[in-house]
Amino acid sequence: MPTTNAATGQAMKAQRREIARPAKAHLLVVEDEEDLRELLVYNLARDGFRVTAVETGEQGLLKAGQEQPDLIVLDLMLPGVDGLEVCRSLKAHPDTAWIPIIMLTAKGEESDIVSGLELGSDDYITKPFSPRVLIARIKAVLRRKADEAEQAQDEDAIEISGMVISPSRHEVVIGDERIDLTATEFKLLLLLARRPGRVFTRQQIIENVHGGMSAVTDRSVDVQVVTLRRKLADRGADIETVRGVGYRFRD
To answer: Are residues 54 and 24 in the same domain?
Structure first.
Protein backbone atom coordinates (compact mmCIF):
# COMPACT_ATOMS: atom_id res chain seq x y z
CA MET A 1 0.00 0.00 0.00
CA PRO A 2 1.46 3.41 -0.91
CA THR A 3 2.41 5.70 1.99
CA THR A 4 0.22 8.78 2.40
CA ASN A 5 1.66 12.27 2.58
CA ALA A 6 0.38 12.61 6.14
CA ALA A 7 2.05 9.38 7.22
CA THR A 8 5.28 10.42 5.53
CA GLY A 9 5.18 13.78 7.32
CA GLN A 10 4.66 12.11 10.68
CA ALA A 11 7.55 9.72 10.00
CA MET A 12 9.84 12.62 9.10
CA LYS A 13 8.89 14.47 12.28
CA ALA A 14 9.55 11.36 14.37
CA GLN A 15 12.94 11.00 12.71
CA ARG A 16 13.81 14.62 13.47
CA ARG A 17 12.86 14.08 17.10
CA GLU A 18 15.16 11.06 17.33
CA ILE A 19 18.00 13.08 15.82
CA ALA A 20 17.34 15.92 18.28
CA ARG A 21 17.46 13.49 21.23
CA PRO A 22 20.85 11.81 21.09
CA ALA A 23 21.06 8.40 22.74
CA LYS A 24 24.00 9.56 24.82
CA ALA A 25 23.40 13.20 25.66
CA HIS A 26 26.38 15.05 27.10
CA LEU A 27 25.76 16.44 30.59
CA LEU A 28 27.83 18.91 32.59
CA VAL A 29 27.55 18.57 36.38
CA VAL A 30 28.65 21.58 38.45
CA GLU A 31 28.67 20.50 42.11
CA ASP A 32 31.20 21.33 44.84
CA GLU A 33 30.30 18.46 47.22
CA GLU A 34 32.67 15.69 46.21
CA ASP A 35 30.54 12.76 47.42
CA LEU A 36 27.42 14.04 45.67
CA ARG A 37 29.36 14.89 42.52
CA GLU A 38 30.77 11.35 42.32
CA LEU A 39 27.33 9.85 43.00
CA LEU A 40 25.80 11.88 40.21
CA VAL A 41 28.54 10.99 37.73
CA TYR A 42 28.17 7.28 38.55
CA ASN A 43 24.38 7.19 38.19
CA LEU A 44 24.20 9.39 35.10
CA ALA A 45 26.94 7.45 33.32
CA ARG A 46 25.26 4.16 34.24
CA ASP A 47 22.07 5.45 32.58
CA GLY A 48 23.93 6.08 29.33
CA PHE A 49 24.81 9.78 29.56
CA ARG A 50 28.25 11.19 28.80
CA VAL A 51 29.21 13.22 31.87
CA THR A 52 31.71 15.98 32.57
CA ALA A 53 31.89 17.08 36.22
CA VAL A 54 33.49 20.14 37.80
CA GLU A 55 33.40 21.62 41.29
CA THR A 56 33.34 25.41 40.86
CA GLY A 57 31.28 27.95 38.98
CA GLU A 58 34.35 29.24 37.17
CA GLN A 59 35.13 25.74 35.89
CA GLY A 60 31.47 25.29 34.92
CA LEU A 61 31.49 28.44 32.78
CA LEU A 62 34.73 27.38 31.09
CA LYS A 63 33.56 23.83 30.34
CA ALA A 64 30.14 24.98 29.14
CA GLY A 65 31.77 27.28 26.61
CA GLN A 66 34.34 24.71 25.49
CA GLU A 67 32.20 21.56 25.32
CA GLN A 68 28.66 22.84 24.62
CA PRO A 69 26.89 20.13 26.69
CA ASP A 70 23.30 19.13 25.97
CA LEU A 71 22.25 19.99 29.55
CA ILE A 72 23.81 21.36 32.74
CA VAL A 73 23.08 20.15 36.27
CA LEU A 74 23.98 23.20 38.36
CA ASP A 75 24.25 23.52 42.13
CA LEU A 76 23.23 26.97 43.37
CA MET A 77 25.43 27.02 46.49
CA LEU A 78 28.90 27.09 44.95
CA PRO A 79 32.04 28.73 46.34
CA GLY A 80 33.26 31.79 44.46
CA VAL A 81 30.95 32.32 41.50
CA ASP A 82 27.62 30.93 42.72
CA GLY A 83 25.04 29.04 40.68
CA LEU A 84 22.84 32.06 40.00
CA GLU A 85 25.76 34.01 38.54
CA VAL A 86 26.75 30.99 36.45
CA CYS A 87 23.18 30.75 35.15
CA ARG A 88 23.07 34.48 34.41
CA SER A 89 26.37 34.36 32.51
CA LEU A 90 25.39 31.30 30.48
CA LYS A 91 22.02 32.72 29.47
CA ALA A 92 23.57 36.07 28.52
CA HIS A 93 26.01 34.52 26.02
CA PRO A 94 24.67 33.42 22.61
CA ASP A 95 26.94 30.35 22.51
CA THR A 96 25.49 28.93 25.73
CA ALA A 97 22.06 30.56 26.10
CA TRP A 98 20.35 27.56 24.46
CA ILE A 99 21.74 24.99 26.95
CA PRO A 100 19.03 23.80 29.37
CA ILE A 101 19.84 24.02 33.08
CA ILE A 102 18.49 22.03 36.02
CA MET A 103 19.27 23.65 39.37
CA LEU A 104 20.14 21.74 42.53
CA THR A 105 18.98 23.62 45.62
CA ALA A 106 18.78 23.19 49.37
CA LYS A 107 15.47 23.52 51.19
CA GLY A 108 14.49 27.09 52.08
CA GLU A 109 16.05 28.64 48.95
CA GLU A 110 12.74 29.53 47.30
CA SER A 111 13.84 33.05 46.43
CA ASP A 112 16.94 31.66 44.69
CA ILE A 113 14.81 29.11 42.84
CA VAL A 114 12.56 31.87 41.51
CA SER A 115 15.60 33.97 40.56
CA GLY A 116 17.07 31.01 38.66
CA LEU A 117 13.82 30.35 36.82
CA GLU A 118 13.52 34.01 35.90
CA LEU A 119 17.05 33.89 34.49
CA GLY A 120 16.02 31.03 32.23
CA SER A 121 16.82 27.78 34.03
CA ASP A 122 14.48 24.96 33.00
CA ASP A 123 13.83 23.02 36.20
CA TYR A 124 14.98 22.59 39.78
CA ILE A 125 15.26 19.80 42.29
CA THR A 126 15.74 20.17 46.04
CA LYS A 127 18.29 18.27 48.10
CA PRO A 128 18.25 15.52 49.21
CA PHE A 129 16.92 13.80 46.11
CA SER A 130 16.93 10.40 44.45
CA PRO A 131 19.25 10.05 41.44
CA ARG A 132 16.36 8.29 39.68
CA VAL A 133 14.21 11.39 40.12
CA LEU A 134 16.96 13.62 38.72
CA ILE A 135 17.44 11.32 35.72
CA ALA A 136 13.71 11.41 35.01
CA ARG A 137 13.72 15.22 35.18
CA ILE A 138 16.76 15.41 32.88
CA LYS A 139 15.07 13.21 30.28
CA ALA A 140 11.87 15.28 30.54
CA VAL A 141 13.76 18.54 29.96
CA LEU A 142 15.67 17.08 27.00
CA ARG A 143 12.41 15.85 25.44
CA ARG A 144 10.75 19.23 25.98
CA LYS A 145 13.71 21.08 24.46
CA ALA A 146 13.69 18.80 21.43
CA ASP A 147 9.97 19.47 20.93
CA GLU A 148 10.49 23.23 21.32
CA ALA A 149 13.34 23.19 18.81
CA GLU A 150 11.19 21.29 16.33
CA GLN A 151 8.30 23.70 16.78
CA ALA A 152 10.60 26.71 16.40
CA GLN A 153 11.98 25.34 13.12
CA ASP A 154 8.46 24.93 11.80
CA GLU A 155 7.27 28.38 12.93
CA ASP A 156 7.71 31.52 10.86
CA ALA A 157 8.93 34.75 12.37
CA ILE A 158 6.23 36.96 13.86
CA GLU A 159 6.09 40.61 12.78
CA ILE A 160 4.01 42.74 15.12
CA SER A 161 4.09 46.36 16.29
CA GLY A 162 7.41 47.02 14.59
CA MET A 163 9.00 43.95 16.14
CA VAL A 164 10.29 40.80 14.48
CA ILE A 165 10.22 37.78 16.78
CA SER A 166 12.09 34.79 15.38
CA PRO A 167 11.49 31.50 17.29
CA SER A 168 14.10 29.57 15.28
CA ARG A 169 16.79 32.19 15.98
CA HIS A 170 15.50 32.95 19.47
CA GLU A 171 15.80 36.61 18.55
CA VAL A 172 13.81 39.82 18.87
CA VAL A 173 14.60 42.79 16.63
CA ILE A 174 13.02 46.25 16.76
CA GLY A 175 14.08 48.36 13.80
CA ASP A 176 17.81 47.64 13.49
CA GLU A 177 18.27 46.87 17.18
CA ARG A 178 18.50 43.36 18.57
CA ILE A 179 16.80 43.18 21.99
CA ASP A 180 18.64 41.14 24.62
CA LEU A 181 16.07 38.96 26.41
CA THR A 182 16.51 36.08 28.81
CA ALA A 183 15.03 32.72 27.82
CA THR A 184 12.09 33.32 30.17
CA GLU A 185 11.41 36.82 28.82
CA PHE A 186 11.53 35.52 25.24
CA LYS A 187 9.03 32.75 26.06
CA LEU A 188 6.72 35.27 27.72
CA LEU A 189 6.84 37.68 24.77
CA LEU A 190 6.30 34.87 22.26
CA LEU A 191 3.32 33.54 24.22
CA LEU A 192 1.58 36.92 24.18
CA ALA A 193 2.56 37.92 20.64
CA ARG A 194 1.32 34.66 19.11
CA ARG A 195 -2.22 35.55 20.19
CA PRO A 196 -2.61 39.35 20.15
CA GLY A 197 -5.76 40.45 21.94
CA ARG A 198 -6.08 37.27 23.97
CA VAL A 199 -5.82 37.71 27.74
CA PHE A 200 -3.55 35.26 29.56
CA THR A 201 -4.01 34.86 33.29
CA ARG A 202 -0.94 34.77 35.50
CA GLN A 203 -1.51 31.06 36.10
CA GLN A 204 -1.65 30.41 32.34
CA ILE A 205 1.63 32.29 31.97
CA ILE A 206 3.21 30.20 34.73
CA GLU A 207 2.02 26.99 33.06
CA ASN A 208 3.14 27.98 29.55
CA VAL A 209 6.40 29.75 30.37
CA HIS A 210 7.55 27.91 33.48
CA GLY A 211 5.87 24.53 33.09
CA GLY A 212 3.56 25.18 36.06
CA MET A 213 6.40 25.24 38.61
CA SER A 214 5.04 25.93 42.08
CA ALA A 215 7.96 28.16 43.05
CA VAL A 216 6.91 30.78 40.49
CA THR A 217 4.28 33.10 41.95
CA ASP A 218 1.90 35.67 40.48
CA ARG A 219 4.22 38.35 41.82
CA SER A 220 7.12 36.81 39.88
CA VAL A 221 5.08 37.04 36.68
CA ASP A 222 4.38 40.73 37.36
CA VAL A 223 8.10 41.40 37.84
CA GLN A 224 8.92 39.59 34.58
CA VAL A 225 6.36 41.68 32.69
CA VAL A 226 7.78 44.93 34.10
CA THR A 227 11.31 43.90 33.09
CA LEU A 228 10.16 42.83 29.61
CA ARG A 229 8.33 46.11 29.05
CA ARG A 230 11.43 48.06 30.04
CA LYS A 231 13.63 46.14 27.59
CA LEU A 232 11.13 46.66 24.75
CA ALA A 233 11.18 50.45 25.40
CA ASP A 234 8.41 52.16 23.39
CA ARG A 235 7.02 48.79 22.27
CA GLY A 236 6.64 47.72 25.91
CA ALA A 237 3.32 49.57 26.08
CA ASP A 238 1.88 46.94 23.71
CA ILE A 239 1.85 44.50 26.63
CA GLU A 240 -1.32 45.56 28.40
CA THR A 241 -2.46 44.79 31.93
CA VAL A 242 -6.04 43.56 32.23
CA ARG A 243 -6.80 44.44 35.84
CA GLY A 244 -7.77 41.49 37.96
CA VAL A 245 -7.14 39.01 35.13
CA GLY A 246 -3.69 39.06 33.55
CA TYR A 247 -1.91 40.35 30.45
CA ARG A 248 -2.38 40.57 26.69
CA PHE A 249 -0.53 41.85 23.66
CA ARG A 250 -2.37 44.76 22.04
CA ASP A 251 -4.04 43.73 18.77
So the answer is: yes
β-strands 101-105, 71-75 pairing: parallel
**Torsion angles phi and psi, residue 52, rounded to 5:** -115, 135
Q: Which of 122, 151, 180 is the last residue of a domain?
A: 151
pTM exceeds 0.85: no
Q: Where are the alpha helices (DSSP H) in the chain?
A: 5-20, 34-46, 57-67, 83-92, 110-119, 131-154, 183-194, 202-210, 218-232
94 with 184, same domain? no
Number of domains forming the structure of the chain: 2
pLDDT band at residue 109 using 50, 70 and 90 as cut-offs: low
Q: How many CB atoms lie within 10 A of CB 186?
A: 21
Contact present, 81 and 102 (Cβ < 8 Å): no
Q: Which of 123, 151, 179 is the last residue of a domain?
A: 151
> 39-48, 185-194, 217-226 — which is least confidently predicted?
217-226
